[in-house]
Amino acid sequence: MRLRSLLLTVVFxxxxxxxxxPELSGNDKRNPDGAWxxxxxxxxxxxxxxxxxxxxxxxxxxxxxxxFDVKSNAFYAAGGGTFKxxxxxxxxxxEFHTLKPKLVGQRIVLxxxxxxxxxxxxxxxxxxxDMKRMKEKxxxxxxxSWIITESESNGTTTVVPEGSRKTIKVLSDNRFQWASFNSMxxxxxxxxxxxxSIEDGKYTxxxxxxxxxxxxxxLNLEFDYETDDVTWKHIGLNSRGEKINEVWxxxxxxx
Length: 255
Description:
The chain is built from 1 helix and 17 strands. It is mainly beta and 255 residues long. The N and C termini lie far apart (44 Å).
């Protein structure tokens, strides 16, 4: 009787904790994958409007962040690379940074405080910012990090060789960001992102920022797509109205 009473008490406490403290339940505490709003940041020598939005996407071993203006369509900055999470730390290894290319190759370790849905990050170098998890509704089969491995344009197919120059797209359940860069030299070639949806074999991107041409912000690009969770193929028109046929390969997680 005592054992049964003890087990019932333990079960009751676990249920109560899951109700009162949702951050302690599920996989969120261990899994940082998703879209995050960046708060309380400061960037020197960059005039940022009150309408600026900072977003970070984390998917497996990769992270991307972007800073853009939701009203004027201005693009301010972006960066990204590989991501690793420890007990009370997070580690960002920079593969591209539009404001400070000299950071490429550097490993930045920050102390993390907070729960599953809100982080406070600080470092000994004076870097600090907060992150708040965005609510996302779609359980997407495309969530993850993908590298482009083949593309067809104007009837010509190109196999993209492995190397330091690469184009990687990071997707949460509702948001995407792609970037082209050279992780050895620090060269940056372009980035863009926004929200996306999947329905009836169609993958549709809504562009919210574009580093090379702000006039493309607001476009909705629809593609036919298929995926087997290893490769992702899509066919459609890019933001210049050109037909594209791309193959992306999923980056295997090591964390």
